[in-house]
Write a structure and sequence with these properties.
18 strands, binds 5'-O-[(L-methionyl)-sulphamoyl]adenosine, six-stranded parallel beta sheet, 18 helices
């Protein structure tokens, strides 16, 4: 990656392979893919990193129960994640696996570097541990009966002699960084929570004696490195090359250029990213990410999803039943990114039908039909494009607001801006009745204007909707004989050429 070009490096979480991928994982990756696709259309150099988190006691136990060795187990589940990203059209550039031998070398080199800095020491630890969180809990975090408040499973008594990371040395710097960089923590309303965690942050153990499935602590084969200390470095390891890893960590220009634009994660793991990880990076002298975005949680019919409740949404089944465009559209449109959101099949179906079939799909098919009937399926020779027209102004303003929303990590608003233009086009179309004016030679020009201005606007919409519904957008672009979107800067209000053939792509979206 060059250091000069505007580069956008986005990461998804590295998903635990202790279970098959679920809709929560798919959700984050849909959003990240939309953000990355948008950035590619702006002409920025984009790197989207996703991957899997494969070590730790939770995965060790799951593999043991399944009766297979941990690595074969990880391979199986990792293949399922990759297949899911294929199904969901997630265009990632890097796939990080924490079982990659190269990753282990990077983690060990990082450990040695932080140790040399004097930020790792050995001490005895006693505490309560939730295996599902892979995290320590205080009494305050627990429900009655010593249950983890997130997973509702009993926590375990834990007491070992471990290596500790001296997080407390960095809490002041982290706090100062947050305060002097508004928007470092996103959405902004989560900042207070992070500052409160910093007040309580203590040095934490970064090794385990009791866990075998992990990266050995350099110089102490009795212990493995704590799964979070290991996994967070999965954002970095694919960028490090070369044998002299410690030297490389210090001077490799790729590392200096390595600076995530944003880590996109769920709110449940914000503390690891906004506190632990930042401390680790500060200790090693590495660049800090520009943003850490903690999004909300999905519920099903208003209830928390869980295996025991039996209300888990299967991401594969959803696409098989309703198609990918519908699924991507719903999750990106109906859930304000950053807040919690709900999925109910009825709301999902109604929303997709209302927006994709009724508002957008119908408009495109009505316009193309009139164009076939009154203009031979070609852009009429009498049509002259007017950049001062209200439709042009609304469309260009819509594009500006759309870009503003995307730059602010708000794909939901970006999608809303698209539909504000679509609603305008529909209203204008209905009130101006081109199907009547086109019939009559005296008013034909008026009809032509409505028809082709609508088509010019839809040309923009075809591009703008690509990050959300790639299948539908591809069909829309085909109307204009494009097989991929142009860079957004190249869109201008004179895209239609008189005599140009307009291809009818058939139904944009089949009603559910
Ligand atoms: N392995 C760690 C992340 C390490 S990153 C270096 C992990 N994995 S996870 O598989 O448990 O969770 C991955 C992501 O899925 C988290 O961002 C989490 O917030 C998200 N979700 C899990 N359940 C979810 C919902 N019900 N709704 C939305 N997102 C959810 O944590």
């Amino acid at each position: 990656m060059s250091m000069l070009s505007d580069r956008f490096f986005l990461t998804t979480p590295l998903y635990y392979v202790n279970a098959e991928p679920h809709i929560g994982s798919a959700y984050t990756n849909m959003v990240c893919d939309a953000l990355a696709r948008y950035q590619r259309m702006t002409g920025n150099e984009v790197c989207l990193l996703t991957g899997v988190d494969e070590h730790g006691g939770k995965i060790e136990t799951t593999a043991e129960k399944a009766g297979i060795d941990p690595l074969s187990y990880c391979d199986q589940i990792t293949a399922k994640f990759k297949a899911l990203w294929e199904l969901y059209k997630i265009k990632y550039d890097l796939f990080s696996r924490t079982t990659d031998p190269h990753h282990s070398e990077v983690v060990q080199a990082f450990f040695r570097r932080v140790l040399a800095k004097g930020d790792i020491y050995k001490a005895k630890y006693k505490g309560l541990y939730c295996l599902a969180c892979e995290d320590f809990k205080t009494e305050r975090d627990l429900l009655d009966g010593k249950l983890c408040s997130i997973h509702q499973i009993p926590v375990q008594e834990y007491g070992e002699s471990n290596y500790f990371f001296a997080l407390s040395r960095y809490t002041d710097s982290i706090r100062a960084h947050i305060k002097s960089n508004p928007g470092f923590i996103l959405p902004r309303f989560r900042e207070g929570e992070v500052l409160a965690w910093l007040e309580e942050a203590r040095d934490f153990p970064i090794s385990r004696r009791s866990v075998k499935w992990g990266i050995p602590v350099p110089g102490d084969e009795e212990q493995t490195i704590y799964v979070w200390f290991d996994a967070l470095l999965g954002y970095l390891s694919p960028f490090i090359e070369g044998a002299d890893l410690e030297g490389v960590l210090a001077i490799n220009p790729r590392i200096q250029a390595w600076r995530p634009s944003a880590h996109i994660i769920g709110k449940d793991i914000l503390r690891f990213h906004a506190v632990y990880w930042i401390g680790m990076l500060m200790s090693a002298g590495l660049p800090l990410p520009k943003h850490v975005f903690g999004h909300g949680f999905l519920t099903k019919d208003g209830e928390k999803m869980g295996k025991t409740r039996g209300n888990i949404i299967d991401p594969i089944d959803l696409v098989e039943r309703f198609g990918l465009d519908a699924v991507r559209f719903y999750f990106l449109f109906a859930i304000p990114f950053g807040n919690d959101g709900d999925f109910s099949e009825k709301v999902f179906i109604d929303t997709c039908n209302a927006y994709l079939a009724n508002r957008l799909g119908n408009l495109v098919s009505r316009v193309l039909k009139l164009c076939e009937t009154y203009s031979g399926g070609l852009v009429a020779t009498e049509y002259t494009s007017d950049p001062e027209s209200e439709t042009a102004q609304r469309t260009l303003e819509g594009l500006r607001l759309y870009r503003e929303a995307f730059e602010a990590f708000d794909p939901q608003s970006a999608l809303t801006k698209i539909f504000e233009v679509v609603d305008f086009l529909n209203l204008r179309f209905t009130s101006k009745k081109p199907w009547e004016t086109l019939k009559n030679p005296e008013s034909r020009l008026e009809g032509i204007k409505i028809l082709f201005e609508t088509l010019e606007s839809l040309y923009f919409i075809a591009h703008q909707i690509m990050p959300f519904t790639p299948g539908l957008a591809t069909r829309m672009l085909a109307v204009y004989a494009l097989d991929q979107p142009l860079p957004l800067d190249q869109l201008s209000w004179n895209s239609l050429r008189p005599g140009q053939n307009l291809v009818n792509p058939g139904a944009l979206f089949s009603r559910i």
